[in-house]
Design brief:
five-stranded antiparallel beta sheet, SH3 type barrels, elongated, six-stranded mixed beta sheet, 167 residues
Length: 167
């Protein structure tokens, strides 16, 4: 699990005529992306290293190693950039990475298993956990303190209080 790849950004295309790339960052601080020295492609192979980065809205502009022309930069459009999970700094106490929630068991306070976390999404109104019950379709649960009062990373479980069903 420590060697899982975590998506941290993607190359959105060329910027200018000298081979710079525009990178969309999925990190809280886009400039963090420029600090990773071991970027990977989706298959785990090395991705071009970024240097000379400067922030722009939604990401950064940077030089990519081995890229000298606009055409080479444009050829990287869509390249997803990953880091190894172990490369991320340890979260503070009572904090965690959303990616660490994927695969965790979700249960109610009385021990009823609701399913496992299939993914975490934010469609604009806050994080949602996609819960996949065994043999049933997935459902979404708001990732709020009210709906999810406890996350036990060590125990591999999430305590959830699903909203009451309306009739």
């Amino acid at each position: 699990m420590a060697d899982r790849l975590i998506l941290v950004g993607h190359i959105a295309g060329a910027f200018g005529v000298r081979g710079d790339v525009r990178v969309t960052s999925f990190t809280a601080d886009p400039m963090t992306l420029a600090g990773y020295r071991d970027l990977r492609r989706a298959d785990g192979s090395p991705a071009p290293a970024l240097s000379g980065a400067r922030p722009v809205k939604g990401g950064l502009i940077a030089r990519a190693s081995g890229v000298e022309t606009r055409e080479q930069a444009e050829a990287l459009r869509g390249l997803k950039l990953f880091v190894l999970r172990e490369a991320l700094p340890a979260p503070d106490e009572d904090e965690f990475y959303l990616t660490d929630l994927v695969g965790m068991r979700v249960e109610t306070p009385d021990g009823q298993v609701l399913g496992t976390v299939r993914g975490v999404q934010d469609f604009g109104a806050g994080d949602l956990l996609e819960i996949k019950p065994e043999g049933a379709p997935s459902f979404w649960l708001p990732f709020t303190r009210e709906a999810v009062p406890e996350v036990d990373l060590a125990g591999g479980r999430i305590l959830a209080q699903p909203p009451a069903e309306t009739e």
